[in-house]
Amino acid sequence: MNYKLAELNYSYDALEPHIDKETMEIHHSKHHRKYVDKFNEAVKGTIWEGKEPEDIFPEISSVEKSIATNAGQVYNHNLFWESMTPDSPGKPDEPLAEAINKYFGSFNDFQEEFSGAAATQFGSGWAWLIKDGDKLVISSTSNHINPLMDIAEIKGFPLFCIDVWEHAYYLKYKNMRPVFIEAFWNIVNWDEINRRYKQA
Ligand code: MN3
Questions:
Q1: How far is the CA of 138 from the centre of ligand 1 (A)?
Q2: Is 101 buried (19+), middle (13-18) or exposed (0-12) by CB count in 10 A?
Q3: pLDDT the model gives residue 22
Q4: Residues at Cβ < 5 Å from ligand 1 ion
Q5: At 40, is the pLDDT very low, low, confident or very high (cuts 50, 70, 90)?
Q6: pLDDT of 173 strictly over 90
Q7: How many Å lie between the centroid of ligand 1 and the Cα of residue 84?
Q8: pTM, whole model, 2 decimals?
Q9: Strands 135-142 and 125-132, how do they pair?
Q10: How far is the CA of 42 from the centre of ligand 1 (A)?
């Protein structure tokens, strides 16, 4: 049973002008699809065949590199797509809003810290808002790594993420990653993130 490429809840042009149609189309139908195909290839005939990427993360340090990198990239992209919507309310609702104020001071302080983590992640990677017990934490990771993996420096349940690999923004924003991150705030799917917060 092959793992399937996640479908988007919106069209490729729905996040315009913040993320352009061409970037979305290539990112989802080429990059993400390639990770899914390679994941299926890598797990074939192993104990991980038919399993979810999440099942592998607690033991990711002991699996083959091709399984580890593609499992991570499949999951990270699934969450990235769910982290965005063309109908963003702009700010989180309760109870997440209160938790953000508690751990970061204010929504603005939170945004600044998250944007900083995303902008300063060296090379390809991701920035995350994580729930660790009752606590909210911001982190960033390299390449395919995510906070559910045994190799993550900062672990926890990911509430949302931003992809800061160049393929996520280069067509429109060129080398200006911070401008892409600033635009991302216009399309954050706070309702879904609040749902994940309550569920975690
Ligand atoms: Mn990507």
A1: 19
A2: middle
A3: 98
A4: 163, 165
A5: very high
A6: yes
A7: 14
A8: 0.98
A9: antiparallel
A10: 19
Residue 91: alpha-carbon gap to chain centroid: 18
Tell me how far the alpha carbon of residue 94 lies from the centroid of ligand 1, in angstroms: 30
**Strands of the sheet with 157-163, listed across from one edge:** 135-142, 125-132, 157-163
Report how far ligand 1's centroid is from the alpha carbon of 167 (Å): 6
Give the chain's domains with CATH numbers. Answer: 20-200 (3.55.40.20)
139-154 tens-digit pLDDT: 999 999 999 999 999 9
What is the average pLDDT score of the chain? 98
Measure CA of the first residue to CA of the last residue in the chain; give whole Å: 28
Task: Answer yes or no: are the C-beta atoms of 127 and 121 closer than 8 Å.
Answer: yes
Task: Report the separation in Å between the CA atom of 163 and the middle of ligand 1, taken as the mean of its atom positions.
Answer: 6
